[in-house]
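Posted in: Structural Biology > Protein-Ligand Complexes

Title: Requesting predicted complex, zinc ion in pocket

I'd be grateful if someone could produce the 3D structure tokens for the following input. Sequence and ligand are given below.
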Amino acid sequence: MSWIGIDLGGTKIYAVVFDGNGVLAEAKSKTPTQGGPLAVVDAMAAVVRALGPVEDVAGIGVGAPGVIDPVEGTVRQAPNLPGWMEPFGVAEALSAALDGLPVAVDNDVNVGTLAEHRLGAGKGADNLLGVFAGTGIGAGVVLDGVLRHGPTGAAGEIGHMIVRRGGRLCGCGGRGHLEAYAGRAAMERRARDLERKGRDTVLVDLAPGRRMTSGVFVKALAAGDAVAIELIDDAVGALGVAIASATSLLDVPLVIVGGGLADRLGLSFVQRVEQACRADVFPRNPELRIVPASLGDRGGSIGAALMAADRIGVAAEKKVVR
Ligand SMILES: [Zn+2]
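-- Reply #1 --
Done. Output follows.
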């Protein structure tokens, strides 16, 4: 039996066929920037067809950014998906587009954490925190071997933990949140702001009128750009503070750091976050390890397939028993 996992991102849709041992096929496309949820569902269905004829597929899992209702399969809010103004039933619409194949939906960071827990850097660990730094910042919480969602599905929203009271404005409207210091979109806003105020930076030259990608930050750092160095220093410091607080609260001995920005900046970035965290961490947690995610780009889609197997597989078994 195999499962299709889809990583629905703000810029691309990445799908894999996964049979529990490995990836059998993969396909990707750009996320449509117009047409809202219906266009996104059509694009996901097209990517699934592009995987080719796959035998024995039992269902599909979708990892989507934003606030998800995993029971209803609804994406309630998705600020990073263009035109997503109100809740939309992704599971129902995608299933209808694919001849009734069952579909389960969860948050992209939750499924990324699930993949790292089962198959990646967290294999064998029952308690861990997966922190993903990309356009925004989110975390997945595994306690006692189980991925925790919380009553509204918002457990792990580390991006909106306060790292500096009254500090920088966050995309959510709050102040001093982690994401305002270490989320790629906030770092881009800050870089453009500093440039307008007269600071010289290659960050803006490298991304004129287009998105300041994680790759742009890597290039600017390599060029010794002072603004880029300052922004990354701030991001490292904020991540260190937030992770120190989160690990004290949750009693987790392992933190896995992944996501576009962390993946591109590499091991040295994660090591710097670990150092910053150690400066603040509760002294009774000497065992704490902070390591890079190991599944990279594919983690989200593999995790979505694992989530589908958990949810749809179990639902199917219950049906048989009944
Ligand atoms: Zn916020």
